[in-house]
Structure prediction request, 150 residues.
Amino acid sequence: MGLHAAYGARDGEGRHVTAESGSRAGLVAQAGRFLVVGVLGAVVDLTVYTLALHLGLWVHAARALSFVCGTTTAYALNRRWAFRVEGGRRRALGFALLYGTTFFLILGVNAATLALLPDRSWTVTLAWAISQGVGTTWNFVMLRTVVFRP
Prediction:
């Protein structure tokens, strides 16, 4: 498969397009790839979070560090595989702005969840999972419609 077949071409305005950009099947395929990337990013995120907590880092600092590590992993894989787009300063800036927003969203959801849940052994992990789910949903919509749109 050639480069253009795998990664698409450019339209008349220089935007990157693929055969799956506008189709329902393309959306499903893209969402599937995003899910795989999300799982890998979440594994990195949760691993760093758990390790940081085990090492005694403050829970909010641990969540911030884990988010940065998971996000770095997700950006690289989403750009090249899930959304199949080339880089560039504009896309990188859009991604940084989106994930900056997501950073505060997940920290807020994590903190609110910790405040609302009873203090049990599973509370920290559940708060992480809820904040991860909210952040992932937000990211897919924004990546598809704003950052990596064709």
Q: What stands out?
A: Strands lie at 9-10, 16-17.
